[in-house]
Amino acid sequence: MAATNMRIKKGDLVQILSGKDRGKQGKVLEARPKERRVIVENLNTVKRHTKPRPMRDSNRMGGSGIEPGGVITKPAPINVSNVMVVCPACDRPTRVGATFKEIKGERVKIRVCRRADCGQEIDR
Fold first, then answer.
1. I need a labelling partner for 122 at 20 to 30 A (CA). Which of 11, 34, 63, 91 fits?
2. Where along the chain do its domains lie?
């Protein structure tokens, strides 16, 4: 499957639509367009049991150079269809539209809020 454009980018505030964290909001840490998934900060967390292992480039830091083991909680990827961008202007989850704007003689695509009473730019 070819990578398609996602309307969600790294740094966006999103709201979870389904799953155990439904209704919660968080910041997108990583977007994976090829997989159509995003990683949201402190949401959809999973526990992983890891062994202690030596760190790469530990001699630069001057530290002990061992990554600790144990049970680590980290966020897991969520499908893009299960999250919705929160508009910075109206603070509500919204679908994302696009308009074109002339900036310094150049045509630029800008994401906008699709709510009828808002319509503000999401990209600042």
1. 34
2. 1-52+69-86, 89-124
For 81, phi then psi, to 5°, come to: -70, -15
Query: Could you tell me how many residues make up the chain?
Result: 124
Q: Reply yes or no on domain 1-52+69-86 having CATH 2.30.30.30.
A: yes
**Cβ–Cβ < 8 Å for 94, 87:** yes
Closest CA to 39 of 8, 5, 71, 18: 8
| SS3 call for 4 | coil
Q: Is residue 38 classed exposed, middle or buried when 0-12, 13-18 and 19+ CB atoms within 10 A define those classes?
A: buried
